[in-house]
Design goal:
about 160 residues, mainly alpha, about 60% helix, elongated
């Protein structure tokens, strides 16, 4: 089954896969639950590739959103997406829905055929989209790091 046709599927479900990784490595807080097989743990190398592909998509759309926002406000603050390695293990993942990515996709689509000054931007929605994409970017970076660590140490 290919997942590439589903927008941001990997990003939206990354928290579940990292939770399965944590349960495998550290045990589950719910002693009554048994370990559930997770596709990300069955083939972590393939999952890492999926994460890296999704990261490029998120970064590309984020770049488009920033480009359009800067046209309207050159002083826009770009959220920091660098995360210290010391806090990777304690990162709290976001639960994101498909709808949270629609404005960025709209901007990306409009930029294909229109100059930036012709885009009817809703500034507040674009800023919110920038923060959603930044949160998704951090989640993906942390997941990539965690799964690469798992592959190196435990496989």
């Amino acid at each position: 089954m290919t997942l590439t046709y589903r927008n941001y599927h990997t990003t939206r479900h990354v928290a579940q896969h990292v939770q399965a990784l944590d349960d495998l490595m550290y045990g589950s807080p719910d002693a009554s639950s048994s370990y559930k097989e997770d596709r990300a743990l069955t083939n972590p190398e393939e999952y890492i590739n999926e994460l890296e592909t999704e990261l490029k998509i998120v970064q590309g759309v984020k770049s488009d959103v920033i480009y359009v926002l800067k046209e309207f406000n050159n002083d826009i603050k770009i959220p920091n997406v660098d995360i210290p390695l010391s806090s990777v293990k304690n990162h709290i993942f976001h639960i994101l829905s498909p709808r949270q990515f629609t404005y960025g996709e709209k901007i990306k689509y409009l930029l294909q055929d229109n100059p930036v000054e012709k885009i009817p931007l809703i500034y507040s929605k674009a800023v919110k989209q920038l923060y959603v994409l930044s949160a998704a970017e951090v989640d993906l970076k942390v997941a990539i790091y965690r799964f690469k660590q798992y592959v190196e140490i435990y496989r």
